[in-house]
Structure formats: C-alpha cells, structure tokens
Specification:
Blueprint: H1 2-22, E1 26-30, H2 33-43, E2 50-54, E3 57-60, E4 63-66, E5 73-77, E6 86-89, E7 97-100, E8 108-111, E9 114-116, E10 119-120, E11 127-130, E12 135-138, E13 141-143, E14 146-147, E15 156-167, E16 170-172, E17 175-176, E18 184-195, E19 198-200, E20 203-207, E21 211-222, E22 225-227, E23 230-233, E24 237-248, E25 251-253, E26 256-257, E27 266-270, E28 276-280, E29 283-284, E30 293-296, E31 299-303, E32 306-307, E33 310-311, E34 316-318, E35 327-329, E36 334-337, H3 398-410, H4 423-434, E37 439-441, E38 450-452
Parallel strand pairs: 1-2, 2-5, 3-6, 4-7, 5-8, 6-9, 7-11, 8-12, 9-13, 10-14, 11-15, 12-15, 13-16, 14-17, 15-18, 16-19, 17-20, 18-21, 19-22, 20-23, 21-24, 22-25, 23-26, 24-27, 24-28, 25-29, 27-30, 28-31, 29-32, 30-33, 31-34
Antiparallel strand pairs: 35-36, 37-38
Helix pairs in contact: 3-4
C-alpha cells in the first residue's frame, strides 16, 4: 500500500501547514445569532484566514458564507465547550449552514458544534460545503435535517473537495426525502477519511440511507458505527470510486433497503478494474434480509469479516464468518461485544491500515488478536451510575452536570473517578441531562453504557 502511505504523509503535511496558517488567522468571538452571520459576511471578504469562536448557547437562524477569496474558514466553540453546549438551529426555516468557496482552494473546518433542524428544497439542508480545498468536520452532531424535492444530502452535502475528513461525529435522524444520501452526500473528491463516526437512523428516498459517495478516488472507513439507516436502495452505504477503498474495523448492522432488488448494508461500485478494495475485521451482519455486501468491479480482498450475505466477485476471502456478533444492547444503541461473542479475538492483526485504537480509544489488540467491529472488548465493563450523578439516584440534574463540567474545565479531580475527567464522560453527562436526566446502565463500555430513560 505504498500509494496509501504516500497519500497519508501528504495529507499529514498539508494539515500541519494548514494549522500553521490558522495560527495567523483573524479571530472573531461570537455569542449571538445575528453576530454569527455578520462575522461570516466579514470573513468572506476580509482577505484573511478566519476563525469564528462560538460562545455556549443556541444560534437560531440560517447562516451563509460565499467567497471568491482563497482564505480558510474555521467555525468552532470557545475552549472546553462540547457540541451539546453550542447549537446551530435552523428551526426548520431553511438550510442551516451554507459555505461556498467555488473553485478556490479554501479549507473549511467545523468543530464541536451541533447542527440541527435545517429544512430546505435544496441540497444539504444541514450543511452545504463546496470548495477545491480540504474539509474537516470533527466532533459534531448533525441531526434532524431534511432536504426535499430532487435534492441530495439531508444532513450534509459536499461537492468538489480535495481531502475530506469526518472524525468522531454523530450523524443521525437526517432525511433526503426524495433523493440520495440521507445522512451525507459527497460528489467529487480526491480522498475521504471516515474515522470513529456514528452514522445512525438516517433516511434517503432513493440510495444511500446513511452515506452516498460518488466520483471519489480513495476512501478510508475505520472504526465507524453505521446502523439503522434506511433507503429504497442501499440502506447503509452507497459508494462509487475509482482507485482505492479501505474498510477496516467498522460495525454495520440494522440497515434496510425497501427495494427487493437492492442491498441492505453496503454497496461498493468501482469504475477502474485495477482498483483495490480491502475489507477487513468488520461486522457487516444483521442488515434486514441479510443483504450485507454488494461488490462490483475492482480487486477485492476480504479478511476476517462477519457477514451473512454477499454478492459479487473477489480475489481473496480468508477467515470470514457468519455468526450473531452478540452485541451488548443494540436496541439501546450499544454495539460493544458481549463476553462470548464470536467476533472477539477473531480479526487479522496484519490488516492493512489497522488502527492503533478502537472507537473508544482503547488499544486495538488486547488479548493477542484484534476483535472484529468498531469496539475492542476490554475488562472495564461496569454497571455503576455515571460519576456526575453525585447522589447515585440515576438522574443527572442541572447542578450535578454543572459541577462535573466545571471540575473538568478547571482540571480538578472527581471523587468517583476516573481522573483526569474524560471529555467524553462530560459530553455523555450533558447528553443525559438534555434527554430528561433519567438514565440507566446497559452494561457496556463507559461512557456509552449510560443511556437515557429508566430502561424498564
């Protein structure tokens, strides 16, 4: 995989140079909805790279940026804020966020924000991004956005980018009511990386309930959860590419395509006969009628995956199984492996692009052999209440979250541990509070084991 290594090095250098440039960018600090649009308008014409910092709160409205300048734009919260604390909300009044640099090599970064309730007869009701540069979407929640008429991308629409990176996002409950890409639609890019994302419960009337990608050279999917997405065709993923596809340690289950002639899980179509399709250590199982994988074109290698139904030809197939993966609590959204799962220690340690850690950040190889799927089994299962729940009454109250969040911000220790307080524990406490406060423990890996509701 020399080509892949070269591209990885180039992308790393590009990101490093990008960060250096951003250190000299113009900075705006925003706390009101009207000011966000004012600063976007200023940024698109000031001839500088720009960073817009958002204070905690909800920014109601529709926001746009359209520039003919080759200057980068970053939108992110003030330090130490989580996406649950910084919310962009269109209130179903139009497209939420429009960023268009045309053919200019502008780099866009969107980080640690919630983007919700975009609703439009336009592509990309939640986010629309067009640029010849790079796009980074990191640690965001993209939810409850809907595109209507013959438009693609309910949650996100991206066109004509160079390198695209999705890292640690939650893309859920988005709808392309009449076309493709319920969660994400991407048309034309050089390279795409999906790492540690949750793509869940999205819908497309046509193809690609979770994600629809076309006209792309190289794609990497590593440590992602792709579950319960629906479409007429290709319920989970619809992928069309020309050069290289790496699908490593992902969990794909519960997806559905309503058309009897389509695939429920993932569709991979390749335009070049010599393209490399490498699929290893995945759980692609339990997708409605068992139509898990459809392959057309390319040189396909399959190593130690768990799938039930597959269509298409392949060069290599080694160590693949067809068994119930025994998730901890899929009905509660917990796709960790239970003790005794056939996917434990059943993966291939020498898989190309094997990640060093799993979706939770745990070491990928714990007991000699890597596990299949997005999560590695650890010994840290617990049925205890969340540490923020100071009176252990299975309810996260406002004052409990505020105290826990404050301790995290100040770097203080917390009586119930773990210490230092992990950011994902703070995010989970905020999520539970905003979901009504009451929660239960389904017994999986922390903090994902704590789920809203009483569990009865």
């Amino acid at each position: 995989m020399k080509i892949t290594k070269m591209i990885t090095v180039c992308l790393t250098l590009a990101v490093s140079l990008w960060v250096c440039c951003l250190s000299q960018a113009a900075e705006f600090h925003v706390s009101r909805s009207i000011d966000l649009q004012v600063k976007l308008a200023e940024a698109q014409a000031n001839g500088e790279d720009d960073i817009i910092f958002l204070a905690a709160g909800t920014y109601v409205g529709t926001f746009s940026y359209s520039s003919e300048e080759a200057n980068d734009l970053t939108i992110k919260p003030e330090a130490d804020l989580t996406p649950e604390q910084v919310i962009l909300d269109a209130e179903s009044l139009g497209r939420l966020l429009y960023l268009n640099a045309g053919e200019n090599e502008v780099n866009f970064v969107i980080e640690r924000v919630t983007c919700k309730r975009g609703k439009a007869v336009l592509p990309g009701a939640g986010l629309f991004l067009e640029t010849a540069g790079n796009i980074n979407i990191v640690d965001c929640i993209i939810t409850s956005n809907s595109s209507y008429s013959s438009n693609n991308g309910g949650g996100i629409y991206i066109s004509s980018a160079n390198a695209i990176n999705f890292n640690k996002n939650v893309i859920m409950n988005n709808y392309a009511k009449n076309y493709n890409g319920g969660g994400i639609y991407i048309s034309s890019a050089n390279a795409i990386n999906f790492n540690k994302n949750v793509i869940m419960s999205n819908y497309a009337a046509s193809s690609g309930g979770g994600i629809y990608v076309s006209l792309v050279n190289i794609i990497h999917f590593i440590n992602n959860i792709i579950v319960n997405n629906n479409a007429s065709y290709d319920g989970g993923l619809h992928i069309r590419l020309s050069s290289e596809f790496n699908f490593i340690n992902n969990t794909v289950t519960g997806n559905k395509a309503s058309s009897s002639s389509s695939i429920d899980g993932i569709y991979i179509g390749v335009s070049e006969h010599q393209a490399k399709i490498y699929i290893a250590n995945n759980i692609i199982w339990g997708n409605d009628d068992g139509g898990d994988i459809y392959l057309t074109g390319g040189i396909v290698e399959l190593y130690t995956n768990n799938y039930k139904g597959i269509a298409g030809s392949f060069k290599t197939s080694i160590g693949n199984i067809d068994q119930d993966p025994s998730f901890v609590a899929p009905e509660e959204g917990d796709y960790h492996l239970s003790l005794g799962s056939p996917c434990i220690n059943s993966g291939y340690n020498e898989a190309s692009n094997l990640p060093a850690t799993d979706k939770d950040g745990n070491s990928r190889i714990i007991n000699d052999f890597v596990d299949m799927g997005a999560y590695e089994l650890t010994d840290s299962f617990s049925f205890d209440p969340h540490p923020a729940d100071s009176n252990n009454n299975w309810t996260i109250e406002d004052n409990e979250f505020n105290n826990y969040n404050s301790a995290w911000k100040q770097g203080n220790t917390w009586t119930n541990g773990p210490n230092p307080i992990p950011l994902d524990f703070v995010s989970r406490a905020g999520f539970l509070k905003e979901s009504g406060g009451t929660y239960h423990n389904v017994g999986g890996k922390q903090p994902d084991c704590w789920m809203p509701g009483s569990g009865e």
